[in-house]
Write a structure and sequence with these properties.
The protein has one domain (5-164): Rossmann fold, CATH 3.40.50.2300. It contains four helices and seven strands; from the N terminus they run βββαβαβαβαβ. It has helices at residues 53-63, 79-87, 104-112, 125-143; strands at 5-9, 23-27, 46-50, 67-71, 95-99, 117-120, 160-164. The N and C termini lie close together (11 Å).
Length: 165
């Protein structure tokens, strides 16, 4: 019998229908596994992948993802350019940067410039789940302020366990 791991994923958010999958925009080669079993496909989020800044701008304007996960260095730009595009939107999605060189300097720079967090590579399922769920809650609270007059922390009941092979 296959050993199953449990990861946490928030399964409903304010203003959206239950069962609708939130969207992630994944920019660049975030996953290093050559397309085999991509980590973001293990979660109940709808993942869209783009490779360059032009695709980022078009996708952000047309699809309004909840979260952007971006490689630190891209072929035609870097994470700062992606962040600049994202924050120009009326309801900007949190931008999470991934890097093999995820040190204190990068983390401080990302936070100081308005990014949400940094994920060290190789990516860890539990850490990805934790950071995406927190970013998602942050985005939902800013997206629907009328439903959240006072920001309330997520409670254990707001989360659901999702089984991942």
């Amino acid at each position: 019998m296959k050993n199953q791991e449990s990861v946490t994923a928030w399964c409903a958010w304010p203003g959206e229908s239950v069962g609708a999958a939130p969207t992630l925009l994944i920019v660049g080669p975030v996953e290093d596994n050559c397309g085999r079993d991509p980590i973001f496909d293990r979660f109940p989020w709808q993942a869209h992948r783009v490779r360059n800044c032009l695709e980022v701008a078009l996708h952000l304007l047309d699809n309004h993802p909840c979260i952007v996960v971006c490689e630190r260095d891209l072929a035609d730009c870097d994470w700062k350019d992606v962040l600049e595009i994202a924050v120009s939107l009326p309801n900007p999605p949190p931008v999470i940067v991934t890097s093999r060189l995820a040190d204190d300097y990068l983390w401080a720079e990302v936070l100081n410039l308005g990014g949400y967090d940094v994920l060290a590579k190789p990516l860890d399922k539990q850490e990805v789940s934790r950071v995406l769920n927190l970013a998602w809650g942050h985005w939902a609270n800013q997206a629907y302020p009328a439903e959240h007059p006072k920001s309330t922390p997520l409670r254990r009941g707001d989360l659901a366990k999702c089984s991942v092979a």
